[in-house]
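Morning. Coffee machine broken again, so started the prediction first thing and wrote up yesterday's gels while waiting. Chain of 68 residues, entered below exactly as on the submission form.
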Amino acid sequence: MDMNKIAGYRIMLGMTQDQMAKKFNISKQAYWKKEKRQTQFSDKEKMKFKEILKPLFPNITIDDIFFN
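Came back before lunch.
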C-alpha cells in the first residue's frame, strides 16, 4: 500500500492525527478527511503545515508537500 504523503509527514513529525487536528484548530474527523484527501487543505492550512515541517525540512515548499 502506498502511504499518503501527508500522513507520512505527520508520522515523521511523530504526531497523531489528533495532535495535528489541534494544531489546525479543527476536529480529528476534519483532519482525517483532509489527510485522506476527501476534503482539501485551505491555503492557510497549507502554509501552517509548511511551518510545522520547517524544523525538519527547512527548505520544503507547499508544492513538495501537497503536489510533487
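DSSP finds five helices and no strands in the chain. Going to sketch it on the whiteboard this afternoon.
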